Target: GOLD domain-containing protein
Amino acid sequence: MNFLIYVLSFISLWEAARAYFITVDAHAEECFFERVTAGTKLGLAFEVAEGGFLDIDLRIIGPDNKVLHEGERESNGRYTFPAAMDGVYTYCFSNKMSTMTPKSIMFSMDVGDSDEKKEHGEVEAASK
Model:
């Protein structure tokens, strides 16, 4: 019985998380989008795997176009936050600062359940 619960839990997490491996060219920006309802837990984890100084700029933008997080020259990070409102949340990886070197990035976007106990709109950085 415990094994069945473990397998079902793993499958439910598998559907909620998507992992990607992308290349962001020099002077370029790549954005990804997630449509959710208010109160839904969102998460982003990333690491620059290859290229230059292993750094990338990151912006997390809410449905109202408000920047929720902006980081410069980050090598990795893990961020979680509850959606403050219904709509499309945007994650952008920017390599505009690079003159020649593309960057390879591994990242996952997680969408969880609604959590009414958290304060809406606060982006939390997990320890690195």
